[in-house]
Amino acid sequence: MDIRSLAIHGGANGDPYTGAVTVPIYQTSTYAQKSIGQHKGFEYSRTGNPTREVLEKLIAELEEGYRGFAFGSGMAAISSVLMLLKSGDHILVSDDVYGGTFRVIDKVFKNFDLEYDFINTSDIAKVRDSIKDNTKMIYIETPTNPLMKLTSIHAIAEIAKEKGILTVVDNTFATPYLQRPITQGADIVLHSATKYLGGHSDLVAGLVVVNNEELGNRMHFIQNAVGAILGPFDSWLLIKGIRTLPIRMDRHCENAEQIVSWLSKQSWVKKIYYPGYNDSQDVLSSQMSKAGGMISFEVDSEATVEKVLSNLKVITLAESLGGIESLISVPAKMTHASIPEEIREKIGITNRLIRLSVGIEYVEDIIKDLDISLK
Ligand SMILES: *Cc1c(COP(=O)(O)O)cnc(C)c1O
Fold it and tell me: Quick check: is 98 catalytic?
């Protein structure tokens, strides 16, 4: 089945007991047993819940993986995946991963003696040279936030497989509609489903998909033992969001392409960051079907930043991304404020950089909001 149909029919459709077309919200903590251990597949909702199970099957099908898992946030999903490791293990991580990922590794897992290096994973030779005897995981994000750098999943997975290392991909920005890392050789793919998968800025959730039974058993053990699960109502809401993922992503991408084209003609726009725009076209076409709905651009002055952000009618100034509504932010002052200014300037996250999560509004209305000549 094509992913556009699978998004609508995947997981399971409806309810066998009543014929309801949508999956019910099984708001229960426990399940009756006929005799000890004799039950209908569910014992306790941390271990398994029918609503959550539909979501978990759905994301596994969309990512073409073996088994899916739902967590209470993207960070809960990421932390649970890191718990596959043990003290003394070493992990290689993309140097511009999501700030919360950096923080949980550098401030929490460090206390459990997890060893780590943050490196530029777009540089495959560098990745190869950075592998140590105790390296057990390579963790990448592609495209990255906010500079939209791409890493070849296939190239990383090839190096990792040779050495028995797990490849983990944070697929939040691309979603399975545009990129399916497991088909490129990754072992684990994860999401902040808070973003595009949920798609309506109305929930916080995380999803994980693994590519084989052994990893599935280990991940389920951690999910149940640690307990960072997603509740039935949010699972239901997330299923509802995912049902329209393909149609939303088409519009996000279409709008973003038109906005990139408009930005490229503005004299006050100095640099545009969009997957495949300046470089990495080969990587883009080898693993993504379209470039997505996230754009960053650098303008000529901080005064222009102020001007762009003034008088917004359609776009909202806010953190987060991936919802139907357009959101704009200044990473240096908001999401990435904890990085010292000299480092930010060096890597390109300047005070003049604006990040736009392109919504699915009528594109001319978004462009009018950005047009400083109208302000
Ligand atoms: C938001 C985000 C996360 C964290 O997810 P939460 O749902 O906020 O916990 C992880 N990775 C990326 C790429 C994100 O954008």
Answer: yes
Task: Please report the pLDDT score of residue 52 as a whole number.
Answer: 98
The region, left, alpha or beta by phi > 0 then psi within -120 to 50, assigned to residue 277 is alpha
Boundary (domain end) residue, out of 228, 243, 258: 243
Q: Is the pLDDT of residue 375 over 80?
A: yes
Q: Please tell me the residue having the least CA distance from ligand 1 atom 7.
A: 74
Q: What is the CATH number of the domain that holds 223?
A: 3.40.640.10
Q: Which of 26, 98, 177, 273 is catalytic?
A: 98
What's the pLDDT tens digit per position in 42-76?
999 999 999 999 999 999 999 999 999 999 999 99
Close Cβ partners of 264 (under 8 Å, ≥ 6 residues apart):
272
How many domains are contained in the chain?
2
What was the pLDDT predicted at 313? Answer: 96
Cβ-in-10-Å burial (0-12, 13-18, 19+) of 262 comes to: middle
CA nearest neighbour of 49 among 79, 74, 15, 25 = 25
Q: Which of 73, 75, 142 to mutate to test the pocket of ligand 1 (most atoms within 8 A of CB)?
A: 75
Q: Are residues 362 and 253 in the same domain?
A: yes
CA distances from 370 to 251, 313, 326 (A): 18, 10, 11
Put simply, whether the predicted model's pTM sits higher than 0.85 gets the answer: yes
Per the structure, the complete domain to which residue 260 belongs is given by 246-374
Distance CA 229, CA 224 (A): 8
Query: 95 with 222, same domain?
Result: yes
149 and 43 inside one domain = yes
Domain finish residue from 211, 243, 275: 243
Q: At residue 105, what are phi and psi to the nearest 5 degrees?
A: -75, -45
The dihedral of CA 276, 281, 285, 288: what is its sign? negative
In this structure, what CATH number is given to the domain that contains residue 312?
3.90.1150.10
Q: What DSSP assignment string belongs to 29-98?
A: SB---SBTTB-SS-SBTTT--HHHHHHHHHHHHHTT-SEEEEESSHHHHHHHHHTTS-TT-EEEEETT--
Residues 6+ apart with CB under 8 A from 303: none
Task: Verify that 256 and 239 share a domain, yes or no.
Answer: no
